[in-house]
Amino acid sequence: MARTALFDRDGYPAEETLAAIEKWPVKEHEDCADLLRFVAGAWYWPEYAREVAPGRWTFATGGWSGNESLLGALAQNLMFGALMSGRFLRLAGGFAVYCLAEEQTVALRAETDRIVEWAWGRKG
Known about the structure:
Number of domains: 1
Strand content: 15-25%
Radius of gyration: 15 Å
Oligomer: single chain
Number of strands: 4
């Protein structure tokens, strides 16, 4: 699916871009990868939105509301959310990790468990 992100005159994602993310047809994990590539291509600071390992994507908004809008649109894509259930972590402050590869998902779950144990004062 070839799509190009559009922006308004101030550099924010255009409504068409956000709508494309929300309505992106997602049926399998490869569709999720295409969608994440599209979102990364629309990111204001490209170095903050990338595939950091095969099948693991990280996004940091840097506090910029345009990037927050992109993550918000991604959250509105219900099929993406269903396929990514248990495969992502979103943190307050505009940071998100999405795992498509099973080994990345396992690693994310282990790290999430470690963070929860740390937060509750249990030894990890």
